[in-house]
Amino acid sequence: MRELIRSDLPQLEQILIATGAFNGPEVACAMELLEIVLNDPTQSDYLVTVAEHAGKVCGYILYGPVPVTEGNFDIYWIATDPAVQGQGMGRKLMEHAEADARKRGARMVCLETSSQGGYERTRTFYERAGYVMESCIRDFYKPGDDRLTYVKRVFL
To answer: Which terminus of the chain is more solvent-facing, meaning fewer CB atoms within 10 Å of its CB: N or C?
Structure first.
């Protein structure tokens, strides 16, 4: 686990695409946030950890404190190379972000995902990591695609 560097961007973009979980605008949004982290060292909204395996970038997590809340953090993006999925890399990224959030005063971590069938594996991953679905906003992303918000309160 290490900090993001500029040369990671092409590999991370390839990983986002290879997962098949993100459409073009979502990949563009994820890349824009990574650029913000690299281009503005004074920003404090986003934190990034990159995972390597066998000397190759294999995933990342982008998370940060939620402005105007007390101890609430969001996980905005997490992605691992399909070649290493199921080997614990996503879990390690999640655990790293949670530990860092805890050091920074987190009392809870939230994340959101889609209700679409293609996200079933993602939702299972979150649930196995101890997250509980707390809300559903119907038709949030588009008709028939709800926003599901998951929360972990282990920091209380």
So the answer is: C
Nearest to 22 by CA among 35, 10, 34, 13: 13
Q: 39 vs 3, 30, 36, 119, CA distance in Å? A: 14, 14, 5, 31
Phi-psi category of residue 88: left, alpha or beta, with phi > 0 → left and psi -120 to 50 → alpha: left
Q: State the DSSP code for 69.
A: S
The pair of three-digit structure tokens given for residue 140, joined into one six-digit string: 């949030």
Domains of the chain: 6-152 (3.40.630.30)
Q: What is the DSSP string of 91-149?
A: HHHHHHHHHHHHHTT-SEEEEEEE-SGGGHHHHHHHHHTT-EEEEEEEEEEETTEEEEE
Rg of the chain's alpha carbons, rounded to an integer? Answer: 15
Residue whose pair of structure tokens reads 């990671």 in the numeric block: 8
Interval 52-96: pLDDT, tens: 988 899 999 999 999 999 999 999 999 999 988 888 899 999 999
Q: How far apart are CA 117 and CA 45, in angstroms?
A: 30
